[in-house]
Amino acid sequence: MSTRYDASQITVLRGLEPVRKRPAMYIGSTDSYGLHQLLWEIVDNAVDEAINGFANFIQVILHSDGHSATVIDNGRGIPVDLHPEEKISALEVILTTLHSGGKFGQGSYRRSGGLHGVGSSVVNALSSELVATIRRDGLCYQQSYQRGVPLSEVQVVEADPQTGTTIFFRPDPQIFESVEFDPELIAERLETKTYLTPGLTILFEDETSAATHRFLHTGGIADLLERSIARYKAHLIHPDKITIVSENGQTNGTRIELALAWTDLTEEITQSFANGIPTLAGGSHEVGFRDGVAEAMMSYLKAHDAIPRGVDVKRSDIREGLVAVVNVLLSDPQFQGQTKDKLNNPEIRSQISALARMEVERYMHRNQSTGGAVATRIIQASRARMASRAATKEVRRKTTVSHRLNLPGKLADCSSTDPQESEIFIVEGDSAGGSAKQGRDRRTQAILPLRGKVLNALQASEGKVLQNKELNDIVSALGCGIGKQFSEANLRYGRIILLMDADSDGHHISTLLLAFLYCYLRPLIDHGYVFIAQPPLYRIDVGKETHWALDDAQKERIVKRIQRKRQDAKFVIQRFKGLGEMMPRTLFETTLDPTRRRLLRVTIPPDQEQTSHQTIESLLGKDPSQRFRFIVENASLVDELDI
Ligand code: 0R9
């Protein structure tokens, strides 16, 4: 293959240059999130062909290096004939021109706008290598690219009676922080696609682990709802799931698919999609759905005179325990938000709300046993909320009495009463608490050991959260009150430091505490009071020198650095199983001493507010792949700080 250097190539380079210059503008970021966007883009193009009825099989191969992938569909094949204006093949136009797309006939659904549907050209621009193979009109064609530049014209390879498109691509390590694909994340995303496109088979070959997954879900979103219910270990409170699909013409060419059921969960779980793209931040379709369901049930309750005297039913009571899937297929979806995961088509809100209102109410009238069970569930939720509000008031009353007599017994307070110089360490477990109490500077450092279980503030009701002993002790110790009674002026410490073991249990407790602070004492995070301590994991002794390492990577670096200077150095390396193993003095020197320690300050950058909220909401659910994504993203929410 000869490399071409002609006029068209120069335009191509110019055309894709902005993508390589500012990749994040096109794919959101250049971290793992952005990397996977490349794959989603190619897969979505193949799924488009299936949604429009021309393909029913897609194969995705993650190659053994974990850094490159191939997507194959059995559709019509991207056209390869010469584009009338550009004088190059349609394939080349698609792969080298920003925002290019086919002409889509009436009634076909296509992703467009914003991040999603940026087009294969963006993937091409950000890949060090891309090979497109097209089977069409009895022939197999091929064209290869490097960083968006074609290496030749489209070539005929051989005769081939089949049709379809194959795209191999290798994300460019010059662009991405890491080019390692995550097989679990891919499998999850691909399986979800098959729920949303019933009849489509996706075969995922993960060559990194020699595993093959075949996904086919003929039941569509009803099956997806089933999976959601199972994942959350929820139990239906009525016999059948409710599915609603808009009839043609009912919603102006937009197809709406809803599946819903009420369960014994205390939260509401809605998964929404627009044209098969997950809309993690919700949008107009979710809002419309919620409105419609609330109106339907309110009307049903009133029609059956089911609201007892003194009970005030709120919309949130109606949605408690509701598990739902909302999918809309529309011809011009508008995505919004930094990561383009919010649907912003205003017309869809009223369409979905009208459909849900009419169909849910009709279903309840026709299925009285379900209607009755859901009505009872809603009244229970209202009563529980009212009781929890009473409990909240009680806790607030207690917390505002902020004299020392009200402090928790296990708090080892500092002697200073000046918040400017005082700090509190919230410590996991009694034994670590003991070391910290002995090792601290008693004048300025308070220690609050946690003994019992910390509740997940996102999963428990407000009443339960506020009755939780450990969380209540934290509120009492901080002195700043909670909810409407919150007063930053009453905060007793200038720094709130979470000190946990450097293991998964420790990280879990930190996460739960952060979730509590985020939900109930948010100004403490926003105003920079909250920190995470960084206790060392290793002690490295070399002769008379002692070094501390926070993790394996740092340990390796220290060992290598010393070995470079002294090849015969003898190391004694101790790994701490927990903070409790550390001598009080060691704990002070490495973790508590303000002149030597490293703290991480917890912050939420203003531009990541919405994403953080959504992520925290989904993180504390039970989906491990979402949790993984959270951990990766959270690294950027934390600033490293030396104090
Ligand atoms: C493996 C990933 N698959 C794809 O990227 C893919 C794109 C694509 C396609 C058509 C068929 N299969 C495809 N797979 C297609 C679309 C149309 C007509 N013929 C074939 C059409 O929409 O009119 N294309 C997506 C855009 C284009 N083709 C086009 F713009 F080149 F027409």
How would you explain this protein's 3D organization?
It is a single chain. The protein is an alpha+beta fold. The protein has 4 domains: 17-215, Heat Shock Protein 90, CATH 3.30.565.10; 221-392, Ribosomal Protein S5, domain 2, CATH 3.30.230; 397-535 and 576-603, 3-Layer(aba) Sandwich (Rossmann fold); 607-643, no CATH class. Helix content is 39%, strand content 21%. Strands 1, 2, 3, 4, 5, 6, 7, 8 and 9 form a 9-stranded mixed sheet that branches. A 6-stranded mixed sheet has the order 18-17-19-20-24-25, sandwiched between helices. β12 and β13 (277-278) form a beta hairpin. α10 packs across α11 (368-400) and α19 runs antiparallel to α20. The longest helix is centred in the middle third of the chain and has 33 residues, at 368-400. The protein is flat and about 85 Å long. The model is unreliable at 1-11, 100-108, 111-116, 398-403 and 637-643 (pLDDT under 50). The structure holds ligand 0R9. The site of ligand 0R9 has 21 residues, from α3, β2, α4 and β7.
